[in-house]
Each structure stands twice: as structure tokens, then as C-alpha cells.
Amino acid sequence: MTEQRREIDKLGANLGGGFRLAFGFSLSKARFHYSLGQLIALVVLLGLLQVVLAFAAVDPPRVFNPYGANYLAALNLGVMLLLLVITRLAGGGARVFGRTLIAVAAAECFMLLGAQLGTGLIALLELPFSYYWAGLCLFLGWQWLVLARALGANRQLARLRVALTAGLFPLGLLASFWVFPQILLWYTDYPEQERAPRAALNVEKIYYAQPQLLAESLSALAPGESGKTELYLLALGGYGEENVFLNEVEYVREQFDTHFGTAGRSLVLANNPATTERYPLANAHNLQSALDALAERMNLNEDLLFLFMTSHGSSDHHFSLQLGDLGLNDLRPVQLREALDKAGIRWRVLLVSSCYSGGFVEALKSPETLVITAAAADRSSFGCGAQSNFTYFGDAYFRQALPREPRFIQAFDLARDWVTQREASESFIPSRPQRFVGAEIETRLRALYRESAMNRAIELAERAEACRLETGRKPCSLSIDRD
């Protein structure tokens, strides 16, 4: 047998031992082989597995990020140093560290696959985002158990000391999320030819114009009328390099003003080179100012806010706010929740349209809130790009569903089905739009639907649907006299 063949057999034996270590089987039959060559082979194998899993987790078109490789190398080196410290604290020397490192590296290959399978099942079953946090806790507990078993195989180490020091391992892994800011190894990007050319912007002029633009927009807002349930709209287009997001917020404002009674009670924040003198910027400061001003005019116990946000989104659940060289900061779920709470707006319909927007659901939940997102927390949505007029979900919800079913919750059901069918027909990975309905929001929505504007929209939609069913034609032109 050649030396190369023997090393391969040893690697197979180490992986077999790692499997037994990871899944709780007795280690008495495990046969680990300890050498520098085996350690290198396991580290390379583990690194390749990390690269492949990172690739599989990102939707095409994929672009390799070399900075992600630096992050991965730094993270793995940090884990090795953490294991060295824990081994020494447990009472082991260099020999124990080497044996532990090989055993843990072999087990990690199977643990990564197990974690990926668990994440995939959560997504497949469309479980709430809280399950991801539960999964993370289970994974960290799994890490503690594996390391405790690996160290415990060294009989000269005290068991209680091993159990206690091994507990530092999951804590260290959790801390690494902050010590090493995550950089993805792969990311989804559109081909360069699909991007709109970046317009030259007068950054200083734009920033100096914000107070006046915001004041003019806010001064046009009408106060709520006591005793009525009224709807206010805030439409925010976050990414200024593609017109699709501006198209959506302008369409939605016109739609709501015309059919849902928000005329004089609607506001647009937009990042787009063509609208820097028309709309205030979509940034965190203007968002808070807009929410505060809306809250001042609303009857907070009666009126509802419909907040529509459309932009790109990232896998770490950042909602993109970008316009040229203005240096805007992305919006995170907790920031949006804090802004709404600070303003004191009670009744909320929140629609976040972006990739990975399902990551906003958990932070925005409340009994008085309806949350709708264009995608699950781990899924991309589709339809953006310089050549697009509407995103898939924006088209399905606002242009198709709401005219047919003006009630917001029921419209989501229609939009989700249409988006799913469209994605399947184009062989896209399903985006899985999400919905959360607070325990008390439906009662407030029913009060809104009884008001004249919404009632007319619902009546018109019902008559149009009846006409469609009777005649077999999709378009049925109807109108209802306004009061």
C-alpha cells in the first residue's frame, strides 16, 4: 500500500470518528489518526465544504467576493486559537490540543451539513423566523457537547473542568459574530449592463435642500377627523440607482390617493437622481421626521398608517438606502421598529418589498400590526433592475391584487399565489412572501373598510369580479358614483 493510500485511509478513519463524535455514538470504536498532514487535510476539506455551502446559499447570478475568503480564514484561525485557550484551561497540553483539534475538525464537517439541512427545513416548512434563533441555540449547544466529548476522551482531564471550559466554545463562537463582521463569500449581483449609469449629484445642494423639502411635504398633510378611521400612506423608495423603486412608490401613492382616500394624507420619500428637488431623501432621519409628523396629524387610537418600503435587501436583513455618493446608511429591522414606536403610531400596515425582507417580520410584530414582506428571511425576491418597471411582488400586490381585492390581508393571498406561479414558470427559487397578522389589527381594518373611500373600492372590486365571472372576461369596466 502506498503512502498516499494510507493517508487517504487515515482521513477516512478520522471522518468516521468525527461522525461518531458529532452524532453521539460511542467513541470506543473511533480511530483517530493524529498528524500534521491529517490536520491540514481536514482543514482544507472543511474550508471547501464552507465554500460550497456558501455558494449554495446564494441565488444566481453569483459573484465571488475575495474579502469573504479573508473573513473565512480569519474566522477559522480564531476558532483554532479559541480551542487552544480552552484546551489549556481544561488542563491539557500541546498533545491534547492537537488531538482535540483533529477530532473537532472532523466532526465540524458533519455539523455544518446538519446545520444547513436544519436551515433548509425551516425555510421549506415556512416556519416563523424565531425558529432560526432556536436553531442557532441548538447549534451552539451542539458545539459545546462535541467539544466536551472530544476533550473528555483524554482521561487525564477532570470531567467537571472539561464540561465548564467547553462551555466557553459556543460563547466564543457567538462573540465572533461581532469580533469578525460577516462578509459573504458569494453575493447575488446583476450583470453590469443591467445597471443604470450613475448620475452626477450635487451632494451639498441635496443635503441643504432637505429641511425645506421635508417641511413642504409635511405641511401638506391633513389632520385626521375625529370619529372616523382614516388611512395615511408613507411610501419609501430606497435604492436610487434603479427607477423601478421610484415607479412603485409613485404608483402606490396615486393608487391610494385615488381609490383609498389618502389624498392629502400621503407622503413619499425617495432616492432617485431625478427627484432630488421633488421628494425628500429616503434616509433614517427623514423617515423618523415623517413618522413623527404623521403621528401628530393622526388620531392615534383610530387611524392607520400604511408604510410601503421598496428597495434591495441583503441576507443579513439590511434594507438598502442608497443614492450615488450621498453615503446613506441602510435600514435595519430594529431601527424601523424603534422609529415607529418613538412616533407613537399604534395601528400599522407595514409592507417591506426587498430580497430577504422576511427578516423584518419578527422585529415588527405587535397585536396592532399587519406585516407583509415580498420574500422570506432567507430568500431573494425578483423583478428589480434598470430595465424593470415593477418588481414581481409590487406588480402582484398593487397592480393585480388590490384592484381585485382591496382588503389588505386578502390581497396578500392573491399576490402570493401569483408571484409563486410566476417564479415557477421562470424556474426561479421561490421567494415565499410572508405575512403576520396581529391579534387586534383585523378589527381596526374592518372599521377602515366601512369608511366611504374603502367601501367604494371594495364594492367596485366585488362588482367587477361578479362581471368577470358572469361574462368570462377578465376586464370589466365599472364605476361607482362618488358622494
List the helices and strands and how they pair.
Blueprint: H1 3-22, H2 36-56, E1 62-64, H3 66-89, H4 94-124, H5 130-152, H6 159-166, H7 168-179, E2 186-188, H8 203-219, E3 231-237, H9 243-259, E4 266-270, H10 284-297, E5 304-310, H11 333-343, E6 347-353, H12 361-364, E7 369-373, H13 392-404, H14 408-425, E8 434-437, H15 441-449, H16 452-471
Parallel strand pairs: 3-4, 3-5, 5-6, 6-7
Antiparallel strand pairs: 1-2, 7-8
Helix pairs in contact: 1-2, 1-4, 2-4, 3-4, 3-7, 4-5, 5-6, 5-7, 10-11, 13-14
Structural features:
483 residues, alpha/beta, Rossmann fold, 6-stranded mixed β-sheet, two-stranded antiparallel sheet
Q: Can you walk me through this structure?
A:
- The chain is α/β, with parallel strands linked by helices and 483 residues long.
- It folds into two domains: 3-188, no CATH class; 211-471, Rossmann fold (3-Layer(aba) Sandwich).
- The protein has helices at 3-22, 36-56, 66-89, 94-124, 130-152, 159-166, 168-179, 203-219, 243-259, 284-297, 333-343, 361-364, 392-404, 408-425, 441-449, 452-471, and strands spanning 62-64, 186-188, 231-237, 266-270, 304-310, 347-353, 369-373, 434-437.
- The longest helix is centred in the first third of the chain and has 31 residues, at 94-124.
- It is elongated and about 80 Å long.
